[in-house]
Amino acid sequence: MACHTVLPLLLFLPFLLAMAATAADIAPGPSPPPELNLTSILENGGQYTTLLRLLNATRITEQITSQLKNSYDGLTFFAPNDSAFTKLRAGTLNALTDQEQIQLLLYHVLPRYYSLATFQTASNPLHTEASGSGGMYSVNVSTSTTSPLVNVSTGVVDVPISSTLFAHFPFAVYSIDSVLQPPQMFGSSHKASAPAPGQAAAAGRQKGVPKGDVAAEPSEAVEEPEGSSTNAAAAGRGTAVWMTVIVLGGMAFLNLLVSA
């Protein structure tokens, strides 16, 4: 009886295998991962208007997208929010050349994917994508078990990572509240020039600088012209001569009256 039951099943087995293979061919495979797009990540963040404008003007987003497609190590991007740019001295961005703006943005890119955990084992200094005549521009990172977990130092500013916008290999995007400033661009050579001496004195008086630190004002007394003492002495001698002449004349007139 068992043999009669198994035989029909064996007859249908090739048909069942063919149906299973057909179903496997029809079933869709896993969808490919979405294209990594820095612009979309920042737009979803909602507070990166200035950064997006700079990225579009310099076309850095295109460079980052191309590198992500061809990199085995991935990339890490530090994204300064709008508040970060307001901390810069007024006119700083406009004072930078197009090339310096590109260098500034590339200074926020690390040529490797770093999660918050892998920052703990990173060896300083970390090279960025920016470079100049002196070589690659670098940053140093320090980690902590308390918030903030990661702090980025440039030698000019110390900037903690405030939040994670995106972190899936091969791309990590971290929000920061200050712009990373490379010393090669924001060192002593980029400090504002000192005001002229006259402006400094005026500023000192306006800010209440102690009197001893401010140059003395000229006296209101009228200065005598050169040679005034000599002129006064000559005038005195002339007056004495006229008085002598008048006295002698008066005595001669009295003598005439008496003799008459």
TrEMBL record:
Residues 1-23 form the signal peptide. It comes from the Eukaryota. Keywords: Cell membrane, Glycoprotein, GPI-anchor, Lipoprotein, Membrane, Proteoglycan, Signal, Transmembrane, Transmembrane helix. PROSITE patterns: FAS1 (PS50213). Residues 192-204 have a biased composition (Low complexity). InterPro entries: FAS1_dom_sf (IPR036378), FAS1_domain (IPR000782), FLA_A (IPR045003). Residues 187-234 are annotated as: Disordered. The chain crosses the membrane at residues 240-258. One of its GO terms (biological process) is plant-type secondary cell wall biogenesis. GO terms for cellular component: plasma membrane; side of membrane. It is a lipid-anchor; GPI-anchor. Residues 35-180 form the FAS1 domain. SUPFAM superfamilies: FAS1 domain. Belongs to the fasciclin-like AGP family. May be a cell surface adhesion protein. This is FAS1 domain-containing protein.
